[in-house]
Amino acid sequence: MFLKTITFAGAFALLGSTAIAGCGISGGNVSVLSNDFPAIQAVTSAAAACAGDGVTVETNLTKDHKDIMVAALTANPAQYSSVVVSNSTLVTLMNDGLVRPLDEMVAKHGAALSKSQLITVNGKVMAVAFMANAQHLFSRTDVLEAAGVDGIPATYEDVLAAAEKIRASGLMDYPVALNTKAGWNLAEEFVNMYMGTGADFFKSGTAEAAVNNENGVATLEMLKSLVAYSNPDYLTYDSNATQAEWEAGNLALATMWGSRGSAVLDDEGSTAEVVSGTVLSAAPTWGNDARPASTLWWDGIAISTNASDEDAEATFVAMMNGISSDVVKANNDAAVWLDGAYMPSPASAGVSSTAAGGAAPYPMLPFMGALHTALGAEITDFLQGSESAKQALADVEAAYTAAAKEQGFLK
Amino acid sequence: MKNRTFFWFILPSLITMLLFIALPIVSVAVQSLHIEHEAVMVEVENCGPFGCKQELQVDVEETAKLKEERPLGQFNGLGTYTNRNHLAFSEIGLAWRSSTGFVDFMSKALNLPFYRALAFTLTYTFVVTPLVIIFGFMIALGVNTLPKRIKGPTIFISLLPMIVTPLIGSLILFWMIDANGILGATLQRIFDDPNLSLKASPALTWIMLMVYGVWHSAPFAFIVFYAGLQTVPADTMEAAMIDGASRWERTRYVVLPHLMPLTVFISLIQLMDNFRVFEPIVSFSAQASATSLSWIIYNDLVGTESQFFGSAGATSVLTIIGVSILLIPVLIRTWRDFNQKVV
């Protein structure tokens, strides 16, 4: 009898002392791959706070995450249990079936999420979005005033006129910058500008590219006019370089990602003169269209297919912790959060007004990545002046067709 | 040594080479003959923070079934080799028929990604290799005449460009030649042109990459030649001096012939290495102005969002063929030397 009591007491004691980590997860390995900017840094450090008995949390924040994510998640078991994805990277991962549906986990742990945060494809939740992002206009109001420009430019034609005035007044030789590094960044500028015309990238319902038209030519011409006011090294300017140039005070009008807003407006890395003169506004429109020349992006969490179910659930809970309302309140200015606790601020004014202006989301088509790559490779010749716009667009379509055939999207 | 002993002696090397060189090359060649299966697509509704939209998506289950049946993909034969991203037979044919002259045909051909990369790769190889040999030899001659005390430190400093990791060395140079960097600003001042930017024009970018290539590889030639200079036969040298040969004549008739085998060796290594030029293009972010064969392989695997294995495989096989063609003259010379010595 005594032995029985001891055994039962011992069993209850053991049950009682089962390790429960801070977030309510009992075990598992959480590993996250993501891009590297302040908002994601806040999310991943909040998720890392879930580490504890039996739960390990590893994070890899790198701007090259797009380059390694497919290979990392194809491995079985996957090298990362979750990836912070966006419109385009989610499609790339879904094409190969590398991310799993989250409906069950959302039902179990996602009570705090709003419906707009659930990215559903064909009825299944494939990702949980936590912030919105878009490229928009940053202006130095002090420089614009000194050059005699009235107010903040609302169209790209106004931007060009303002740049000419700034150059004529001798304040800056190269006042304009966009993220024009050859490759993904340059293609993104083309995509944003083309979206401002309202035209489609592909023939409707098919995977055939349809950019070699007057809209494409006008887009290239507008880009060329803008880079005429940019530093001659513009083909090496990615978003880090553009932000560095802005904070150094070398620019007056730049198109940068909204997620750079809080880094540009904080007290580090720049002078008070630059920070006080910086204003974030909606992406300009151009031509006869009223749609802002930008694309809306969401960043969200996706969970790997090739991670074990225990790891997947632990990761989901940890990441829910990372995007909880407390994190949003503590980092309100870091991004345009999709959580209800978010309060709009000057650092996010650009993204909110771009979305309010009617900008469209980046197309979530499986073959958009191939077109994006073809654009990044082929339009540099036109910008450097060695090719006509029509020839450049014909090259883009030919390069896209070859890539799409190899990927199986075209015969 | 008996043939059998020789065989057992080199067996470990043979096995390693088979496993780590031969079999992977065969695997890459097989991969280059295949492309992805045709994607099965279905129209679905995508919903997110910005609303819902009907869009085409890949049917993952159907595609997964196809992949399980035939994991390598669709057999494409030499289709990948002749498509626009490689040898582009149909585009070259079209350019040949429709162009107005040789220059026009060349500019159309150089518009194609593979030929553009090949043009830079060949220019880089045939400019950097002779310059490396010449500069390496001159540095070796110079260092050889230095007094003993400063010889050691000078050799160390001369070797530094080669010791620095290529990616780091070229990244540092990239920052220095920026218009705000020390070299860039100095050049702007020397040429009195505030708009001069080495990164902006393709011609200047090519020159900059080749200057970096020579700077990085000359120490290798230097150290090999320097070692060779220590073995110049003293008798022949003294005889030449007694015969009244000038410094230049001694170098030309005694030193150079003695160093010829080393020159062949260095050109072999340099031709192979320079044909695979890659790190400078990445560190200088020069892909807008200059691409190379290795860079387009890298771009197919890493720079695009999904990986193009077949295309990368085809470019790899073409690179191997290119290197073999380049090495034929050197190998013929080595074979002749070998036969002479045996006789």
Fold topology:
The complex is a heterodimer of chains A (411) and B (343).
Chain A: H1 2-16, E1 28-34, H2 38-48, E2 55-61, H3 65-74, E3 82-86, H4 87-95, H5 103-109, E4 118-121, E5 124-140, H6 141-147, H7 156-168, E6 176-177, H8 184-195, H9 214-227, H10 239-247, E7 253-257, H11 261-265, H12 272-277, E8 278-281, E9 295-303, H13 309-322, H14 325-330, E10 336-337, H15 349-356, E11 360-361, H16 368-378, H17 380-383, H18 389-407
Parallel strand pairs in A: 1-2, 1-3, 6-7, 9-11
Antiparallel strand pairs in A: 3-9, 4-5, 5-7, 5-8, 5-9, 5-10
Chain B: H1 3-31, E1 34-35, E2 41-48, E3 51-58, H2 60-69, E4 74-75, H3 79-82, H4 89-98, H5 102-109, H6 113-144, H7 148-163, H8 166-177, H9 182-190, H10 202-229, H11 234-242, H12 247-275, H13 279-283, H14 293-303, H15 309-342
Antiparallel strand pairs in B: 1-4, 2-3
What are its keywords?
heterodimer; A: 411 residues; alpha/beta; D-Maltodextrin-Binding Protein, domain 2; 2 domains; 11-stranded mixed sheet; 18 helices; 44% helix; B: 343 residues; mainly alpha; MetI-like fold; two-stranded antiparallel ribbon
